[in-house]
Design goal:
It is a single chain. The protein is of the alpha+beta class. It has one domain: Orthogonal Bundle (Arc Repressor Mutant, subunit A), CATH 1.10.10.10. The protein is built from 4 helices and 2 strands. Strands 1-2 form a two-stranded antiparallel sheet. Strand 1 and strand 2 form a beta hairpin. Helix 1 packs across helix 2 and helix 2 packs across helix 3. The protein starts with 8 loop residues before the first helix and ends with a helix.
Length: 74
């Protein structure tokens, strides 16, 4: 199954915002960049981690994986 089919618009907005930030970031920073609610971004991180698109670098700080980078590029 293609990964893209599991991702919704919010997931993609998060990945694109993370790519634009270009550094590990907290959900609050990602949310500000993507124009989303920080709690919603934080909740989505579990799914994005499970799919292997983001990884936790420290408590509350996330970065894109190589696969996440590719997905963000579309």
């Amino acid at each position: 199954m293609a990964l893209g089919s599991e991702l919704d618009e919010i997931d993609m907005a998060i990945l694109k915002a993370m790519k634009e930030l270009g550094k590990p970031a907290r959900p609050k920073e990602i949310a500000a960049k993507a124009g989303l609610d920080a709690r919603r971004v934080a909740a989505k991180m579990r799914k994005l981690r499970r799919l292997g698109l983001v990884e936790k670098v420290e408590e509350g700080v996330y970065k894109l994986t190589e696969e996440g980078e590719k997905t963000a590029e579309g």
